[in-house]
């Protein structure tokens, strides 16, 4: 193997590891959307981890790319249609409930320590 092919191999492996890491995190968070109770989530999360661990020792780069593509397709097919969104996050029920004040209005938070003129 030459230096350029070694560098290309390492770059491709790093990209694959990153895609797998992102896919696992997204699938794990989506598993929490499907589980009503924590004890159900723990079983589902354990099964998900086993599915990822089953292909941990695959070395062929093309096979890894195919496995990642299949897993991403499966994730997109079974993704929750109405995921839980933290209320204060974008898309949540409390997001921008208290919008920023308009230009020219200054809010001073002295809480009783105002200057008495």
Describe the structure.
This protein is mostly helical and 117 residues long. The protein has a domain at 3-78. It is built from 3 helices and no strands. The longest helix has 32 residues, at 3-34. The mean pLDDT is 88. Pfam families: Complex1_LYR.
Mean pLDDT: 88
Q: What is the helix tally? A: 3
User: What is the H-and-E element order?
Assistant: HHH
Biggest beta-sheet profile: none
Helix content class: 55-70%
Give Rg in angstroms. 24 Å
| Terminal Cα span | 80 Å
Number of strands: 0
Share of β-strand residues:
under 5%
Based on secondary structure, the structural category is mainly alpha
Shape: elongated
Write the layout of secondary structure elements.
Elements: H1 3-34, H2 38-53, H3 61-78
Subunit structure: Mammalian complex I is composed of 45 different subunits.
Membrane topology: Peripheral membrane protein
Keywords: Acetylation, Electron transport, Membrane, Mitochondrion, Mitochondrion inner membrane, Phosphoprotein, Respiratory chain, Transport, Ubiquinone
């Amino acid at each position: 193997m030459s230096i350029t092919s070694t560098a290309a191999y390492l770059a491709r492996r790093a990209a694959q590891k990153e895609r797998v890491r992102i896919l696992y995190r997204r699938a794990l968070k989506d598993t929490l959307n499907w589980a009503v109770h924590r004890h159900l989530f723990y079983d589902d999360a354990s099964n998900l981890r086993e599915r990822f661990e089953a292909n941990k020792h695959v070395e062929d780069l093309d096979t890894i790319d195919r496995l990642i593509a299949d897993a991403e397709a499966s994730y997109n097919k079974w993704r929750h249609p109405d995921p839980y969104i933290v209320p204060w996050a974008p898309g949540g029920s409390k997001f921008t409930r208290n919008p920023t004040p308009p230009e020219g209005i200054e809010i001073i938070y002295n809480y009783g320590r105002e200057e008495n003129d």
